[in-house]
Amino acid sequence: DLEAALTMIKDITREAEVGAIYEGTVVKITDFGAFVQILPGTDGLVHISQLANYRVKKVTDIVKEGDTLKVKVLEVGRDGKIRLSHKAVKEDE
Fold first, then answer.
1. Residues 38-63: pLDDT tens digits?
2. What domains can be seen in the chain, in order of their start residue?
3. What CA–CA distances, in Å, run from 47 to 30, 73, 87, 92?
4. Is 41 helix (H, G, I), strand (E, B) or coil?
5. The pTM is what?
């Protein structure tokens, strides 16, 4: 139906808002962090230092690909890169 189609288009064209909290999916793990899809076609990086409020040795100690993760948008760079934090969500709760 039309309303469902409009909602889908809004979701696809939505942009990440700084300060907003999203429930995303971990799509890629690297040594320095995890890439999380927060909107359709929109991924951001949770740096290893932003995964927990303690020192994390390995990203995979905290998250695995396919995991759902609540993240807060810290910054959207001029280059479009999105910096995310899981630690900031925990601190806000």
1. 998 899 999 999 999 999 999 999 99
2. 2-92 (2.40.50.140)
3. 9, 12, 10, 18
4. coil
5. 0.84
